[in-house]
Amino acid sequence: MRILNVTAQKPDATGSGVYLAEMVRSEVALGHEAAVVCGLAADDEVRSLPGEAHVFAVRFDTPGLPFHVCGMSDTMPYAATRYRDLTPDMLAAFEDSFSRVIREAVEEFDPDLVICHHLYVVTALVRELVDDRPVVAICHSTCLRQLAQHGLERERIARAVRRLDCVYALHGAQREQIVEQLGVTPERVRVLGTGYNARVFHAGADTPRKPGRIVYAGKIWRKKGVESLLRAYAAMDGRGLDLRFAGGRGDDAEFEAIRRLVDECPWHVELLGRLSQADLAVEYRRAELFVLPSFYEGLPLVVIEALASGCKAVVTDLPGIRPWVQSNVPDAPVWWVRPPRIRNTDEPCEDDLPAFEGRLAAAMREALASDCCGCDVSALSWDALTARLLLDYPIDK
Q1: How far apart are CA 186 and CA 50, in angstroms?
Q2: Are residues 221 and 359 in the same domain?
Q3: Does 102 map to a domain?
Q4: Is there a domain that residue 340 lies in?
Q5: Using an 8 Å Cβ cutoff, are 217 and 247 in contact?
Q6: Hey, CA dihedral for 162, 16, 229, 213, is it positive or negative?
Q7: Could you give the count of Cα atoms lying within 13 Å of 6 in the half-sphere of its Cβ?
Q8: How far apart are CA 156 and CA 121, in angstroms?
Q9: How many C-beta atoms surround the C-beta of residue 92 within 10 A?
Q10: I want to staple 72 with a disulfide (CB 3.0 to 4.6 A). Which of 13, 33, 142, 345 is the partner?
Q11: Which SUPFAM superfamilies does UniProt cross-reference here (predicted)?
């Protein structure tokens, strides 16, 4: 099968970027031909995709697109333009550039199936331009957040999404949200879940685990709960503990506020920056506990990667995540933390943060004191996930 994968973003650096890159790797491993349409900065090189994949790039920071790659989150781990800040001229240039490259990819690569990532502007373009072969899309939650927070092309996107051959949700709660928010018929929305790279993320016996080591992986961003994690950690008895943050920085002012909390913390904290998948896997294998205190998530693959690497986990109990994990990894050593009340999709109520941070600290203490460890996540590999999706499209040319 010839599979065209489409994203408006860089095919790395974020959860959805890793999701796409790993699916492409699995498509190739399963014997298919793969191509990718993606957004890149003028001087970006693609390192996250297998060499066999054909890449059709839309280049930003160029005379034709004189602004940064557009990000599905308002704070990205690289220089990015917010969708809400696009002027009519910028949006027209964006759509013209992607339309040209999508047409080129379809004509040259001649895909049997097109898989789009995010239910947003570029997915709408693909559906409008490609009507003679199956087009499906995977929701990563951030698109739903964009649609809820501002009106850019909202009705056009909804119309196009309703015409997709299938929409894949990360979990059951997200499936219900897609049906309600975009008016997609329930029969056209299926739960796909997430996966992990079993070749990279595993509990290797050759890496000594350090008791008391806590690791966070993701954007260094307030909405990921990073400030709350630092305050919760500072309130604990941190003797013998070690907190390490792996991830790219976003907004400079916000990062400096987080840096001040790091400097003020009475216990050891280290900011590692953005890591490769291989280096992140080593961090997981050395850690006892993984913590994800986010205020908004789809289905975070970092949780599965950490569990596969032998970590215990403390995770905010956000909609849809706990049922999916408990259904697919029933023996997972995860402690769930009730979130604060949320406004505007991803903003915590300030009055609720002290109690949330108290619950977070209590969960970390309980997890660190527990002897529970290890679980079987082997059924959640990217190869298995990709094979499940492709079974829906038995095309033989």
Answers
A1: 34
A2: yes
A3: yes
A4: yes
A5: yes
A6: positive
A7: 29
A8: 8
A9: 11
A10: 142
A11: UDP-Glycosyltransferase/glycogen phosphorylase (SSF53756)
Give the Å distances, CA to CA, from 125 to 96, 100, 160.
10, 11, 8
* Same domain as 163, residue 52: yes
Regarding whether 300 and 164 lie in a shared domain, the answer is no
pTM of the model: 0.86
Instruction: Give the Å distances, CA to CA, from 220 to 54, 309, 351, 369.
Output: 32, 22, 22, 27
Report helix, strand or coil for 291.
strand
Is residue 204 a part of any domain in this protein?
no
Q: What is the pLDDT along the chain (397 residues), one digit of tens a residue?
A: 999 999 999 998 788 999 999 999 999 999 999 999 999 999 999 999 999 999 999 999 999 999 999 999 888 888 999 999 999 999 999 999 999 999 999 999 999 999 999 999 999 999 999 999 999 999 999 999 999 999 999 999 999 999 999 999 999 999 999 999 999 999 999 999 999 999 999 998 788 999 999 999 999 999 999 999 999 999 999 999 999 999 998 788 999 999 999 999 999 999 999 999 999 999 999 999 999 999 999 999 999 999 999 999 999 999 999 999 999 999 999 999 999 999 988 999 999 999 999 999 999 999 999 998 889 998 899 999 999 999 998 765 4
CA distance 68 to 197: 30
Cα angle 248-252-254, degrees, rounded to a multiple of 5 = 90
Residue 145: which domain range? 2-195+381-390
Does residue 164 lie in a domain region? yes
Q: Are 257 and 183 in contact (CB under 8 A)?
A: no
Joined tokens for residue 115: 């898989």
Task: Report d(CA 141, CA 21) in Å as an integer.
Answer: 18
Q: Clarify whether residues 122 and 175 are in a common domain.
A: yes
Question: Is residue 294 a contact partner of residue 318, using CB atoms and an 8 Å limit?
Answer: yes
256 with 348, same domain: the answer is: yes
Query: CATH no. for residue 26?
Result: 3.40.50.2000
Q: Report the number of distinct structural domains present in the chain.
A: 2
Q: Are residues 344 and 256 in the same domain?
A: yes
